[in-house]
Amino acid sequence: MPRLGLILALIGCIAVAVYGVGVLRHVGREAERGDLRVLVGYNPSLMDESGDVVAAWRSVLQEEGVAAEALDLYTLLDLDPAATAAACPALILPDGVCRRLNSSLEPWLDAYLRAGGSLMVVYDAGIKSLKGAYLPRSYLSRFTGVQHVDYTDGGQDSYTTGALRFVDAAAAATCQIPPGKLDPDLVLTGYQYGRLRYPVARTRLEAGDARVLAVAVADDGREHPAIVARAYGAGRCLHVNLPLGHLKSHADDLPLRALARWWLLEEVGLPCLLSAPRGVGGLVLNWHVDGNGDWPYLDDMVARGLFRRDLPASIHVCAGPDLNAPGDGDGFDACGQGRRQLEALAGLGEIGSHGGWTHNLFSAELLAGRWGATEAREAVRRNRDCLREVVGRPVVEYSAPDGVHPPHLMTPLLEALGFTCYYTTSDVGSAPNRSFSDGRRLSDLLIAFPVMPLRDVASFGEMDTKHRLDSGEVAAWLDGMLDYCERNRTVRLMYSHPYNLYLYHGDQDYLPAYAAWLDELAARCRDGRLQVRPMREFADFQLRMLATEATWRVADGELRLHLRNPRGLRDLAFSVPAGRWRAPSAPYLRAATGGGRHVVVIEDDAREMDVVLRAR
Q1: 185-197: per-residue pLDDT in tens?
Q2: Pairing relation of β-strands 313-317 and 349-354?
């Protein structure tokens, strides 16, 4: 038996060695031929504990059209730093999986940065030796200019919780934080929560040449650097004092996505595919209809032109005849008395399912845990089938009544029922994405659309009843949403209920503000600066973009892009830094330049394509 164990161990070692050589050769070949991508590093001994962080990073980067590869950091040490910087201009050391680092990485990183590579250090990366001992000073501080954990207070006091506050509005805009996610003091907020409190380390700034964009305000009032950018050699560093990967894998997508977009695209200057059709930012106008109390308001909204064919909305209806309990008669009754109204609304947007048949009963039973998959499935199926019978087309959009969406119950259920997208109160303020919960991605096929808040509220009704916000502040929030989506070429969802527009007291008359905002939105759409589509259309496009094979390669002073998608490439768009590359010229490509980048739209039905951009 001991001899057998020894033989098996030797076989295992040989297999691991062969695998490692294979990975090394794979990475080396890509570096030699110039394939551009981001490296997401990890210590393999920490993957069982925190591997969800790597999955979260890879998922977000894929959704943002950035080529990326997860790489064992032991393999990294065998690569040439300068060649790696040319092929892989950005290296990310995420939270959790990089807590323990080999000290041999320090000279490699120095050479990589001096050759023009860029380094992002996240939260607890590098705070321990390879053997697990806490370091009095991480060697990564040499590059970032931040002492990543200040142990002068000793023990557990080295970590705390804190609010994230940006140093000014320009810093928040730079980091691509939507204005609705910030309070007047520029502190990051959440829907229903107000100021968010995050796990943070007691960091300390060491370099005078570092740029602090945000600080973590600890419970004791002390401020610690939280987002710090710094040049090093020919490269650049970013230190983020938040567990970005853990947050994403536990339903808070925005911090990772916003910072990755800014740093990789604007600072490092990587090319990318764009997740919005034709690379134009967009809005989803999502209305939730609970019961027959909305009938008169819906008629008035149609009469006033607040539903418009040029701005097709996502209109989600709870279809049953009851609202709170069977027999109360307060439901929308889509297949009965509400049918006429639903047929009219179907011509003004996409009809989706708002939960399952009886609005308040559905949310209450799910919230109390009295309903499981069988009851929930039957209620949603019944709701969907009624709506489909009235509108005469598949119903593939969904929103949860009262936001009650137990993720591991409802998301697979929706996928099984043929839905493609859903409204969510997770990942608040962020872009449509494949959402995570409890460390794993919920679905590869369903696109979640997070709600866009105004601090701790989202619907017009909440703005009125919770804070009595005046219409001027609400109008500014609406305008800020347009500016944000246009500038960052991204998609966001706003939601409300029809009756919410009719709750007004003095200065809280939101209806005129919303009507004026629709006119501005329509004008920007006509100018090609924004687009409004139902959830379904944005989700279908994003899934097609995610299925597109894209390879970026630098060779002989050219950036060569190879694209392939069996479903076709029309309306896909890509973005490259205008300061480095000339816009391509071809009859099937439409290029526009703005914000320091070329945005190139494919106007051809080809399924495979090569594009060449020449260096300036």
Answers
A1: 999 999 999 999 9
A2: parallel
Q: From residue 32, give the alpha-carbon distance in Å to each of 39, 475, 554, 555, 586.
A: 15, 53, 10, 10, 29
Residue among 27, 25, 22 at smallest CA distance from 41:
27
Which of these, 328, 390, 394, 393, lies nearest to 358 by C-alpha position? 328
Q: What is the DSSP string of 356-404?
A: SSSHHHHHHHHHHT---HHHHHHHHHHHHHHHHHHHSS---EEE-GGG-
Q: Residue 70 and residue 85: Cα distance in Å, rounded?
A: 15
pLDDT tens for each residue of 206-221: 999 999 999 999 989 9
* Contact between 213 and 238 (Cβ < 8 Å): no
Residue 507 has pLDDT above 70, yes or no: no
What whole-number distance in Å separates Cα of residue 488 and Cα of residue 280? Answer: 9
Q: Counting every residue, how long is the chain?
A: 616
Indicate left, alpha or beta for 407 from its phi (over 0: left) and psi (-120 to 50: alpha): alpha
Amino acid making up residue 399: S
| Predicted confidence (pLDDT) per residue in 43-89, tens digit | 999 999 999 999 999 999 999 999 999 999 999 999 999 999 999 99
Is residue 141 a contact partner of residue 113, using CB atoms and an 8 Å limit?
A: no
The predicted pLDDT at position 7 comes to 38
